[in-house]
Amino acid sequence: MQSIHTKLLEVHYLDLGPQDGWPVILSHGFPYDIHAYDKVSPLLLNSGARLIIPYTRGYGATRFLSPKTMRSGQQAALATDIIHLMDALGISKALLAGFDWGGLASCAAAALFPDRVAGLVSYAGYDVANVEEHKRAAAPSLERVMWYQHLFQSERGRECLRENRRELCKLLWEEWSPYWEGAEAAFERSAPAFDNEDFVDVVIHCYRFHLGSEEGDPGSEHLEKKLAEKPRISVPTITLDGTEDPLKPGGSSSHASFFTGRHERREVRCGHAFPLEAPEEFAAAIIEVHKWSEGDE
């Protein structure tokens, strides 16, 4: 584990593989952590990659540098965290891959900063949040699965997450990955990351902002306006769908028009925790996109 200061954060991260390897930034989601890539990493290292796996803001040992910085969880903030980390590490261009918040952050970064992104692997699909659309009701079956997001809109939800964070997060793991037998042990490895002092504030803001009930950071407003226009992603991309994920019913087959560069969509029988449940397929997608970015077939 290493640490480095960016514009807003002291980011703690893993830096694996040769320093001159092809750089990949692996971003985790909620409620997961860097251990989501424990089985993906060896496969990528065998292919010559340099892996940067950071704790997202609000997780693990990553900390805000100033108490005055808004504990924002909005997509523009998560995306710029990736770019700021690249700046601090002296990485001009990297392949981005992620799931859940990590997919959101990677997609948003690819859409906003395409000159910094060599390629993209996203679970699931074009994962940029449509805040205006999220203000409207979804199908009842999906609204039921999103119970935690509705809970987080209230102060009762903040208290529930603060006082029962492990119980609540474990319940989400179980619901989102119903056929994954390795969840118990994996959760115990990841759960300490939720003890971060900013975890609750960042998580609550993320879901309040993306459901339209709370304002974002004024410093990110110009980027959010760009994301609201649904910018297309031009970098080489593979999008992944887990067919057993209750959060993504029907997958992302309708998202193809959002990708103007080379794009392929793949389905795998797994739940929401794609890199944990299907590490071989996740790594294979990253290696394939790297080949595309290098001009190899």
TrEMBL record:
One of its GO terms (cellular component) is membrane. InterPro entries: AB_hydrolase_1, AB_hydrolase_fold, AB_hydrolase_sf, Epox_hydrolase-like. It comes from the Eukaryota. One of its GO terms (molecular function) is catalytic activity. Pfam families: Abhydrolase_1 (PF00561). Residues 23-278 form the AB hydrolase-1 domain. This is AB hydrolase-1 domain-containing protein. It comes from Pseudopithomyces chartarum.
